[in-house]
Amino acid sequence: MNAARIGVITFPGSLDDRDAARAITMAGAEAVPLWHADHDLRDVDAVVLPGGFSYGDYLRAGALARFAPLMTEVIAAAGNGLPVLGICNGFQVLCESHLLPGALLPNAGLHFVCRDQRLRIDDAGTAWTADYSTGQEVVIPVKNADGRYAADRETLAELEGEGRVVARYLDLNPNGSLNDIAGIRNEAGNVVGLMPHPEHAVESLTGPSTDGLGFFTSIVKGLVGA
Ligand SMILES: NC(=O)CC[C@H](N)C(=O)O
């Protein structure tokens, strides 16, 4: 059987594309490099939008990346069920693209926050979290300036009512996110946005844990089993 092919998009200013590719490889899939200026998704089975500062975070984090040529393809493919994971800046791009509701605002303390963060996986029903159990606690780093999840009251009620909060901060809310939200999914469940960085928690030598690998093994197992 051929390995699953998971694309990682590089925008100008992406930082964590190589780490995402490495995590994908560790999980047993082929990491396929994708370039923001192309219109070609190269037949991938899933896509990761990595962390970083796409287009220098000018205007607003993710606001310019949303208009990258490749995002036209990602938006169309996500509508047809392609699994998409946005990590940190990738989450910001997904909100700006309206693939996910709400927005990521400057952190409550107006500082860049970098810490190992305890989280609870609140929805193990997505393609990206199936290898966890709902309620499982993990430690994964956060590092961002614009991580405060915000949405209007109606949207928030909808997310909570439909169980679409994928991960929540425990112990300390590092950025003032509403309801301690660290990650959410779309209605269909194929698009997930996550502020913490699972690709930085895949091996004990460099990360605080290996707890992040589950996001990548989840999708790989789902694709191979599909
Ligand atoms: N690591 C990241 O992706 C964080 C960068 C992000 N644009 C921010 O500072 O909010």
From TrEMBL:
| Keywords from the UniProt entry | ATP-binding, Cytoplasm, Glutamine amidotransferase, Hydrolase, Ligase, Nucleotide-binding, Purine biosynthesis
The EC number(s) this enzyme carries: 6.3.5.3, 3.5.1.2
Q: Which domain of life is it from?
A: Bacteria
Its main subcellular localisation, reduced to a broad class, is cytoplasm
Cellular location(s): Cytoplasm
Please write the reaction equations for the catalytic activity of this protein: L-glutamine + H2O = L-glutamate + NH4(+); N(2)-formyl-N(1)-(5-phospho-beta-D-ribosyl)glycinamide + L-glutamine + ATP + H2O = 2-formamido-N(1)-(5-O-phospho-beta-D-ribosyl)acetamidine + L-glutamate + ADP + phosphate + H(+)
- Active-site residues are C88, H197, E199
Question: What CDD domains does the record tag this protein with?
Answer: GATase1_FGAR_AT
Look up the record and name the pathway of this protein.
Purine metabolism; IMP biosynthesis via de novo pathway; 5-amino-1-(5-phospho-D-ribosyl)imidazole from N(2)-formyl-N(1)-(5-phospho-D-ribosyl)glycinamide: step 1/2
Short name of any one Pfam family annotated for the protein: GATase_5
Q: Does the keyword Nucleotide-binding apply?
A: yes
PANTHER family found in the cross-reference section = PHOSPHORIBOSYLFORMYLGLYCINAMIDINE SYNTHASE SUBUNIT PURQ
Q: How does it assemble?
A: Part of the FGAM synthase complex composed of 1 PurL, 1 PurQ and 2 PurS subunits.
Q: What is the annotated role of this protein in its UniProt record? A: Part of the phosphoribosylformylglycinamidine synthase complex involved in the purines biosynthetic pathway. Catalyzes the ATP-dependent conversion of formylglycinamide ribonucleotide (FGAR) and glutamine to yield formylglycinamidine ribonucleotide (FGAM) and glutamate. The FGAM synthase complex is composed of three subunits. PurQ produces an ammonia molecule by converting glutamine to glutamate. PurL transfers the ammonia molecule to FGAR to form FGAM in an ATP-dependent manner.
- Listed name of the protein: Phosphoribosylformylglycinamidine synthase subunit PurQ
Species name = Actinomadura parmotrematis
